[in-house]
Each structure stands twice: as structure tokens, then as C-alpha cells.
Design goal:
globular, about 5% helix, single chain, about 425 residues, mainly beta, 5-stranded antiparallel beta sheet
Length: about 425
């Protein structure tokens, strides 16, 4: 005959087991999982590639390196990698941004470090230089929206200024904030004409200014700073108005943030084991990608509640290293959660695209010998299908981490265009 205590113990054990299964199922259902695709290189023999961004509908952009040059590219899941022609006289090119109609903008230069940089646009497979303001000889293009309005900067050093390319002309952004801060360079623009970038405070040149300019309202303002900081850099903006970037004290190391009209600036929790970071792209749902770091660069995804290391979201044994090197990055996220950046795949530095997991795999990427589309690629490992990103962001509920003030060199004004 069973005792009452034994019966109660068994009931408790069964209940505990069921609760554990519910918890595990909930975690599995809510943690995003991804297939990861090797974007590859444009031509056989190219030495490396980098991914710099992705359009709302998942057109990835970046560059493919070879001896003596670099070629810009676009990539889609169905079409693979397609090389874009270089501007005459500029053997190093990078595509920084694309819209969903196939318009791509970027920068052409004479060296990998941006010497002689010029803003370029690719339309229908043809490349041309974007116009520069009268008297200017240098420029870059960092972002383009659905209306084919692009933004970037012109000139360099203390004379560098944010610029808008539209309708066959280039216009320097002259609007300042209430304290006189002005645009040094524009990194992003959304479809409603909100521009974000890096500004300069004329009363304190050591302070970075996360600056926003709304074209329609002809108004510029700062996103502010996180507690313990005094400035920021604004790298991206969504169609819903979210602004993301990094907040720091003067030229010190930064912490990632998300800003909204309703909630102001809010810290994004750092990925486990990191001490500093920068948010680099955001979609309309408020999902953010960027790079945290300690000894290594740690690409992350923030879903409005939790910050994940990208290395933890891809299938095991994929051949990808996204956590034990200094080359890895996450610089773009589409409306459907496709993430684009750079990682190390089987020892080679390559651009990648992380696509929310689905039960149907697709076939494998290979470099092309000429700038034409490649066959449809396959994930580098068998994925585990689970829920895809669809959460509503809750940035105002995010805890603010303790500021880390370890000094680092000031970010270069032209952080994203790396021709």
C-alpha cells in the first residue's frame, strides 16, 4: 500500500517535470533561431568579403576584396551575389545601402582606406557619381530611402559636413540643434525623411552628438545621452522612427541605445561577457543589431527585451565563428529579421546573411567568376526551425547598465563607409 507522502511526492515530481517542459517549450518558442548563409565573394580568387547592410526587403550590400581593389555587391537569397561595376578611376568600392527598387548607394575610392572618395549610385546595373556641392571634391553616400534620397557627407576633417543627395543635386545639411550642434556626417535616412548621424558641438568639440534631422519639419535635435555619458553617435533609423547607436562620455567607449519619440534614449542590455558596444541597425519593430565587445567583437541581436549573441542563434557546427575574432559584425536587419554582417567561415572572412529559420532549406553559395547572379544558396548547416522575429519592442522597460568608462579612440567620423 502506498503512503500518502509517497503519492504526494510522485505528484510533485510529475508537476515539476511538466512545469520544466513548459518552461523549455516557452524558451524554445521565443528564442529566435536562424539559418546562416555564406554570401561569398564576387570573383573566384577574391580574398574576403564584408556585409554592410540590408534593405527593408532583404537585399544585402557590401564589398568583395581582391588584390589591388574591392568590388561592391548586392545579394539576395534567391539570386545570390551580384557584383556591381566600379566607378572609373576608383578601384575600391563599397555598397552601403539599397532600397527595395534596386537602387544602391555607396562610395568609390582609390585605396581601401577611402582616399579620393566619391559618392556613387547604382541603377539598373550602371554606376554613376552622385553630384557634389559646388567647390567640393570628396564625398560618400551611406544610406538611401524609397524616394531615392541618399545621405552621407562631403569634404573631410574639420570641414566635413552631412549632405543630402536628391533630384540630381547635393545639399549640405545646415540646420543646427538649439545649442548650435551641426551634422558632421549622415549615416541613415528613413522613408519619411528622418536623418541620423554624428554631430559636432561647437562649445565642446570633444563631445560626440547623436544628431537627428527631420527634412519635412526642417528641425534638428539630439538624442541625448545615457546616464553617466554626455553624448552619442546615431547610426540607424527605422521607418517607425526608432534611432539607434552608441552613447559615450566624450571619446570614451560606448554603450548601445535605442531612442524613440515616446521613450527617449534607453540602454540596450549588453550581451553576456561584454563591456561596451554599439547598435548599428534597427527595423520597424524595434529589433536591433550591432556589436558588443570585450577581447573579441560580439555581434548581437536585441528583440526589445533580450540581447542575444548571434553565435548562439545559428546551428551548431556551421563552420561560422561569430564570437572569437575581431572581424565579426552585424550591421543590417531587414523588416523580416534578416541580419547581415561579417564573420569568419572556415577560416575565411566573409559576409553572411542570417535568415529566420524555416523548415525548408534551400541550395549552396559559390563565388562567381564574373559579376552575375549565383545559384540560390544553402545554409551552412541544417537549421532547427523555431519562431521567427515578430515581437513588439518595449524599449522603455529595458534596464540601464552601469556605464563603463574605459577610454578608447574616438570613432572616425565616417564609420560605416569603408572603401
Amino acid at each position: 500500500m502506498k503512503t500518502r507522502s509517497a503519492t504526494n511526492f510522485r505528484s510533485f515530481a510529475v508537476a515539476a517535470a511538466l512545469l520544466w517542459l513548459v518552461v523549455v517549450a516557452a524558451v524554445t518558442a521565443t528564442t529566435p533561431q536562424y539559418q546562416i548563409y555564406d554570401i561569398g565573394v564576387v570573383e573566384v580568387g577574391d580574398t574576403a568579403s564584408q556585409g554592410f547592410g540590408v534593405s527593408h526587403a532583404a537585399v544585402a550590400v557590401g564589398r568583395s576584396f581582391r588584390t589591388g581593389g574591392a568590388q561592391a555587391f548586392t545579394w539576395t537569397l534567391k539570386g545570390g551575389i551580384v557584383g556591381l561595376p566600379n566607378l572609373s578611376g576608383r578601384s575600391f568600392a563599397v555598397s552601403n545601402s539599397a532600397n527595395d527598387t534596386g537602387i544602391v548607394v555607396g562610395t568609390g575610392a582609390t585605396t581601401a582606406f577611402g582616399s579620393g572618395r566619391l559618392p556613387v549610385i547604382w541603377q539598373n546595373g550602371a554606376v554613376s557619381q552622385l553630384p557634389l556641392p559646388v567647390g567640393e571634391t570628396l564625398g560618400d553616400a551611406n544610406s538611401v530611402n524609397a524616394s531615392i534620397v541618399a545621405v552621407g557627407s562631403v569634404n573631410g576633417g574639420s570641414l566635413q559636413r552631412g549632405v543630402i543627395y536628391s533630384g540630381g543635386s547635393a545639399t549640405v545639411i545646415t540646420q543646427t540643434t538649439t545649442n548650435g550642434s551641426y551634422f558632421l556626417t549622415a549615416f541613415g535616412i528613413n522613408d519619411s525623411g528622418r536623418i541620423v548621424g554624428q554631430g559636432i558641438d561647437p562649445t565642446n568639440a570633444a563631445r560626440n552628438v547623436g544628431i537627428v534631422y527631420d527634412i519635412g519639419q526642417n528641425m534638428a535635435f539630439e538624442v541625448g545621452a545615457l546616464p553617466g555619458m554626455n553624448g552619442a553617435l546615431a547610426f540607424g533609423v527605422s521607418n517607425t522612427g526608432y534611432v539607434i547607436g552608441s552613447s559615450m562620455l566624450n571619446q570614451g567607449s560606448g554603450l548601445p541605445f535605442i531612442w524613440s519619440d515616446q521613450g527617449g534614449i534607453v540602454a540596450i542590455p549588453l550581451a553576456t561577457g561584454t563591456s561596451q558596444g554599439s547598435a548599428r541597425a534597427v527595423n520597424s519593430a524595434g529589433w536591433v543589431v550591432g556589436n558588443d565587445s570585450s577581447a573579441f567583437s560580439i555581434p548581437f541581436l536585441y528583440d526589445g527585451v533580450t540581447t542575444y549573441r548571434l553565435a548562439d542563434l545559428i546551428p551548431p557546427n556551421s563552420g561560422w565563428d561569430l564570437s572569437m575574432n575581431t572581424s565579426s559584425s552585424a550591421l543590417g536587419i531587414s523588416e523580416d529579421g534578416v541580419i547581415v554582417g561579417t564573420g569568419v567561415h572556415n577560416g575565411e572572412t566573409h559576409a553572411y546573411a542570417m535568415v529566420p529559420a524555416s523548415p525548408t532549406p534551400t541550395p549552396t553559395p559559390s563565388p562567381t567568376s564574373s559579376p552575375t547572379a549565383t545559384p540560390t544558396p544553402t545554409p551552412t548547416s541544417t537549421p532547427t526551425p523555431t519562431a521567427t522575429p515578430a515581437a513588439t519592442p518595449t524599449p522603455t522597460a529595458t534596464p540601464t547598465p552601469t556605464p563603463r568608462l574605459t577610454p578608447t579612440p574616438r570613432p572616425h567620423p565616417t564609420v560605416r563607409p569603408r572603401p
